[in-house]
Automatic annotation (TrEMBL):
Keywords: Membrane, Transmembrane, Transmembrane helix
Keyword set includes Transmembrane: yes
The species this protein was found in: Oceanobacillus bengalensis
Name the record gives this protein: Ferric oxidoreductase domain-containing protein
Organism classification: Bacteria, Bacillati, Bacillota, Bacilli, Bacillales
Chain ranges passing through the membrane: 5-25, 31-55, 76-97, 109-128, 140-157
Superkingdom of this protein's organism: Bacteria
Length: 158
């Protein structure tokens, strides 16, 4: 199994932990609710990376076929789930701005802003690959995914 499954699981637990220990829990505040839903859409898409990584390293052909078929079924929705993540995070950010405003002194907001810009680029390169399916764009899309993972982890930790 790819190490990304463990990393993703860790990020999932971290997000859940931050949400259940939030002062508004169990009546989640709207910014947190939208942040969580957007995060879950992102994580669902990013788990495909873990599946691909497992396919590359799978010892048996049978296992490779099973995982590849599963990934193929989810593929038609990949761009749309990514776009949904962006839309939910857009609402999360608007609500945060309305409730708290924005401050460059707040590290959580800086990490969030960088993650948001990264997410926009991630979704944009995802759609661009539909018109220009080049290897270079695939690599950029993948690297954006890794940096987005790290920025979201930072945003949640701060
Ligand atoms: C990809 C982008 C983003 C994701 C996935 C995301 C996700 C989340 C999640 C799941 C939470 C709830 C858990 C926690 O409190 O740590 C949260 C909280 C928060 N986010 Fe984001 N966020 C993103 C972008 C942003 C941006 C751009 C800002 C502001 C500039 C921001 C500001 C905040 C703040 C201030 C909180 C705490 C809210 C509170 O305590 O009431 N986030 N975010």
């Amino acid at each position: 199994m790819s190490k990304w499954f463990y990393f993703n699981f860790f990020l999932f637990i971290l997000a859940l932990w931050q949400v259940v220990t939030h002062y508004s829990f169990p009546c989640l505040s709207m910014p947190v609710l939208f942040g969580l839903i957007g995060f879950l859409f992102f994580l669902f898409n990013w788990t495909r990376n873990a599946v691909f990584s497992t396919i590359r390293n799978a010892p048996s052909r049978n296992m490779k076929m099973k995982l590849a078929n599963l990934s193929k079924k989810v593929m038609p929705f990949h761009r749309w789930t990514g776009t949904c993540a962006l839309l939910f995070i857009l609402v999360h950010v608007s609500l945060i701005f309305q409730w708290y405003g924005f401050s460059f002194q707040n590290p959580k907001m800086i990490a969030g802003l960088l993650a948001f810009i990264n997410l926009i680029l991630m979704v944009a390169t995802g759609w661009l690959r539909l018109v220009r399916p080049t290897g270079k764009l695939r690599k950029i899309h993948l690297r954006l995914g890794i940096s987005l993972f790290l920025l979201i982890a930072l945003h949640l930790l701060l």
